[in-house]
Structures are given as C-alpha cells and as structure tokens.
Amino acid sequence: MYILAVDAGLRVGYALFDIPTATLQWYRSHNYGALARLRRGAATLIAAQPDLALVVVEGGGSVAEPWQKAADFHRIPYCQIPAERWRQDLLYDREQRSGSQAKRAAQQHASQTIADAQAPNHFNQLRHDAAEAILVGEWALRHCQHLFLPEK
C-alpha cells in the first residue's frame, strides 16, 4: 500500500511513500506548463501506481482538481490540506516565518528523509515542490491512517 503526496501546481512535486515501512520510495518534480497537460499527467500517474491507498494534495483550486478527479475515478481516498497545516505539524515556528524560509526548511527536512530512505535522487538539486511533497507525505503517514487503514 502506498501514499502519493502532491504539491499541486502547474509545476508539481510528488512523492510516493510505502505505508507499511513508512519510507519514501521516490520523488519527482515536473512542470506541466498548462492545465490540460496537468489533467492528463495526474490521470496517467495515478493510473500507473499500483496499490495506492491514498492521494494527499497540498493546494487547491484548478491545480488540485485533476488529482481529486483521478483519485475519485480509481476509488482511491483523497485528502487535501493547506501548506499551513503540515508546516504547523512538521516545522518549527522559526522555520516558517516567511514562505521562502518555510520552503528552505522543507528542503532541509526532505533531504534528511531522502538520505534516511536512500531514495533515488533524480535531480541535481532538490526543488522546493518535490521537498514539500515529501513533507506532505510524511504528514499523511502520521495523520491520515483513518483514511486507508481498515477499522478494528
């Protein structure tokens, strides 16, 4: 079972987490450039991921909608959160005094997650959108189990 975490936008970051081991499997960043390409990309990515238990998206509006529609189509639970929510839980107050400061802190925390998981690095430099997707996934592992684990 896996969680797909997404930092929504035309330039999107995503990360895949293995739920039983709570480890990062891979992460990426992609610039779709247009909403129509984002719609196709979200549908293709979700359809290609076997055993997805949850799609969690940071962001809203027209750039989050394709992720929700694709998750709904495949009957995969979907969760949408604002950046402030996961930042409050995962970053110190001093790390989020401004948006740019929070993005740098996310990159530092995500770099540690990547190192711990020994996840493959497909970038020369970790972009903030992929870093934020990694932290969204970590937040979901801690706070969204009720969406993907069967009740006892």
Topology:
Layout (H helix, E strand, L loop, with lengths): L1 E6 L3 E8 L4 E9 L3 H14 L3 E7 L6 H9 L4 E4 L1 H8 L8 H19 L10 H16 L1 H4 L4
Helix pairs in contact: 1-2, 4-5
Keywords:
single chain; 152 residues; alpha/beta; Nucleotidyltransferase, domain 5
Biggest β-sheet strands, sense, barrel? 5 strands, mixed
Mean of all residue-level pLDDT scores: 88
Low-confidence segments, given as residue ranges, are none
User: β content, as a range?
Assistant: 15-25%
Tally of separate domains: 1
| Helical proportion, percent range | 40-55%
SS field, number of helical segments = 6
Radius of gyration (Å): 14 Å
Task: State the order of secondary-structure elements, H for helix, E for strand.
Answer: EEEHEHEHHHH
Strand order of the largest sheet: 3-2-1-4-5
* Broad structural category: alpha/beta
- Which CATH architecture? 2-Layer Sandwich
CATH fold field value: Nucleotidyltransferase, domain 5
Shape by Cα distribution? globular
CATH level-1 class: Alpha Beta
Measured distance between first and last alpha carbons: 18 Å
CATH superfamily: Ribonuclease H-like superfamily/Ribonuclease H
**What is the β-strand count?**
5
Describe, in short, the structure shown.
The protein has six helices and five strands; from the N terminus they run βββαβαβαααα. It is α/β, with parallel strands linked by helices and 152 residues long.
Tell me about this structure.
The model has no long low-confidence stretch (mean pLDDT 88). The chain has a five-stranded mixed β-sheet with strand order 3-2-1-4-5. It contains six helices and five strands. Helices cover 46% and strands 22% of the residues. Helix 2 links the parallel strand 4 (52-58) and strand 5 (78-81). It has 152 residues and is an alpha/beta fold.
